[in-house]
Fold each of these.
Amino acid sequence: VLGKGAGMISPNMATLLVFACTDAKLSPAAARKALATAVDGSFNRITVDGDMSTNDTVLLLASGAAGTPAIRTGSPEYARFAQALTSALAEVARLVVLDGEGARKCVQVTVEGARSDDEAQCAARGIAESMLCKAAFAGADPNWGRFVCAAGATGVTLDANAVDVVIGGVPVARAGKPIPAALRRAKARMQQREFQVLLRLRQGTGRGWMWTSDLTVDYVHFNAAYTT
Amino acid sequence: VLGKGAGMISPNMATLLVFACTDAKLSPAAARKALATAVDGSFNRITVDGDMSTNDTVLLLASGAAGTPAIRTGSPEYARFAQALTSALAEVARLVVLDGEGARKCVQVTVEGARSDDEAQCAARGIAESMLCKAAFAGADPNWGRFVCAAGATGVTLDANAVDVVIGGVPVARAGKPIPAALRRAKARMQQREFQVLLRLRQGTGRGWMWTSDLTVDYVHFNAAYTT
């Protein structure tokens, strides 16, 4: 699997080029379904600048050169193939974020306990595309209130007095109340190249996630003078 | 009229505090309607970082101390009052953008010829909230293709081969075709503190506009270290 792309990264499969090749033999339906599943669990979860590009492409080429029987949807082989393809694409998607313009970090934003998976994904995207949150990632600033605000601004069902926030495995807020003693440890986690920000909304069982970059001074320098 | 606010500026009347006082006497209905009109033409058109704050407030206080008859909706006096209030609030809204975190510019993004006013406003907001476009404003980079992309990514009806782009009164693209000789003049306009970016979509008569700041290195510095 090969991928290219660094700016205008907010694929909705809208300048991202990805080519995945396999020697497995796949029925066309199985290939289409596995690719859709894998893209949903990888490239459609990443954002660098929230600016959708005009021509994102992910291609899956299955040669059948392995000489094994055709894999069809519904079979155990299909499930294994789809999972392997998702892992491979997810790895490349993560590298695209780390290779983003000015990016030094890849942050996984996860929202759990939303009313639905759609609400969870919407809240995760709200944080992942927020300039304020992305600047906090750049500065390793455990400003968890910012993350809750960005989630709330998306309009999802959220009770600020119910939310837990966990940064890099360190709980920094429980039921909307800060845990001040944890901030120093959370900041240290945010200085790593990759970490997770987790919000638990306690409204249901919906879950969603995004990978996003930090917003750095280099991003601004890079994009402030392009044409002229 | 007094206003305060610099970060988390993307009001949907969601830490913006604005107080407008008048000695006119207004019927409660007229006061409510005039304020809604004025906010729609001012504070709901500005964005600094696209991050909605949790408690924006605009208050209108009408003392009646002027001793003039009560102004009621539908009257010529109402129309004059509503227009004056809109102008006053718009002036303060523009100053809030220029006072935004790290902001050095206030850019009016206008979209004309959309299929509807809603589509025009959606496209204008898409450009006004795009990190790529805002970085181009900071660098005075007349990267008009970026503006068209950001408008198109919102999903509004748009034909890239029909769009005109005008920067600070200088046409830089006509029907999707660049006017290279104009770029140097457009760049000079973008070095001013205030300028307009205008897109004509040629799909209808819808019109919308936003005021936005440029995305500067100072914005990132300011927001990368807040809590710790």
Note: Residues 79 and 179 of chain A are 42 Å apart (CA to CA).
Amino acid sequence: MTALFERLLIAGVGLVGGSLAHAVREAGLAGEVVGFGRSEPNLAVARERGLVDRTSRDPAEAAAGVDAVVIATPVGTAVGVAEALRPHVRPGTILTDVGSVKTALVAALEACWAPVGPVVGGHPIAGSETSGAAAARVDLFRGRRCILTPTPATDRAALGRVRALWEGVGARVEEMTPAVHDELLARVSHLPHLVAYALVDAVAGARVDGHDLLAYAGSGFRDTTRIAGSPAGLWRDVALANAPAVRAALGEFRAALERLESLLAAGDGDGLEAVLAAARAARRRLGRGE
Amino acid sequence: MTALFERLLIAGVGLVGGSLAHAVREAGLAGEVVGFGRSEPNLAVARERGLVDRTSRDPAEAAAGVDAVVIATPVGTAVGVAEALRPHVRPGTILTDVGSVKTALVAALEACWAPVGPVVGGHPIAGSETSGAAAARVDLFRGRRCILTPTPATDRAALGRVRALWEGVGARVEEMTPAVHDELLARVSHLPHLVAYALVDAVAGARVDGHDLLAYAGSGFRDTTRIAGSPAGLWRDVALANAPAVRAALGEFRAALERLESLLAAGDGDGLEAVLAAARAARRRLGRGE
């Protein structure tokens, strides 16, 4: 089998980048997988775990001879990384990414990369509150969705190769516009993160008779707030980059919460149970999953 | 070793009642453990799993010769169950419960049980969105907190025996007033449940370009909403029975959420990161736990 890419550069060898690198190596999708990053200790972990063939902290060295670049750094630093690599890649090099927001990011990457080659926006829906090369898992994308977000500017051949990359690591690839992606993820991902952070914030800040409230948290509170353990800078950037859709999603959530509050204030047991039962039914259709 | 109780009646052999029954039997804390309930299929599961010595659906038969009763039915039915058993117990029989709300419930149980014997309010902080005797686990309370909520009316000897019961199944027992318990649990338990239900409600009801949003839910959304799979009637009753504290907790949460929204609307990245980072730090002190 011919590899999909001769030499693939993965910029940001964290949970997502490291898992992709490892899965690409295992599936033989690239002749060589190079890891680029700032933190030598993290790159050392990536090498020791065999996630990549080699690593570099130098943009010129990292980018030499690659035919595709995957930006897997946090959303807020993606464009800066692309700019640092751009002078060192050969013409036609494909740029793709894994960012959780797409409209603003894909537009910025297209503007940055226009002199060089094609851009394909991507977002694998997989992850956890863990981070770093140590958290990478070769099967992270297996059976998970990966959304690609072509624009009118997207090169169809490049889109096909990026699709083959994700399908090659076991993901179910789907295409939609950056705007639809962002509206969708605002609700199923960005909103739950902000809700989890707000819930911890509210409870950690409350005082009842001198008790440390968090000491009484059971498994329900722990599950509901697990993703509030995610890196703050990353979610700041996501929320800001997708602010209009996130604010709309927050508004929808606040309306749902106010509906519960009104029913509670009115002592409307039947109404309250109807809303809770409908939500329960929807949640149970979703299953426990992972 | 002399058993703590000659014959213990557990009314409601679900996750909590069934787990307590099983742990009591295993620890030899009662000469006999009787399970009382309405659903014969569930009682059959309790017998087959050896959670109890025997079961009955008849109040008179179930209550005969017992020296303590644990009400482990949902909060909304607890008083009705106590009333049904009352005519059939001997004088001095201890009544205790496991309800997630205490102020209104303990007062009602004290009023109901006054002609008979002492009442001790209790609440083991353990559970999950599962239910029924099939979900019972002998170690459910091991290492978990159990809050007892004595009132000025509480008999100290009865309080001591109920404390010994919970310590005997491995729980860490703590005492506080019913009012403090309710303020505390409103924040660490009742609030997260309503938030999870509201989150599912909002996302299940939203539409983006014809997509079924829940199909795109990742592990973050699943964790954050897991407890929205809990029985609706149970949480309706808890919310209504603890309405003042729950509404206060909802107000605190809404304030935290509005703080995030304001920072987002203002594009205040530093302010947003500071709030998220503080919440993250608080959440990480809590640990992953179970």
Note: The CA atoms of residues 12 and 187 of chain A lie 26 Å apart.
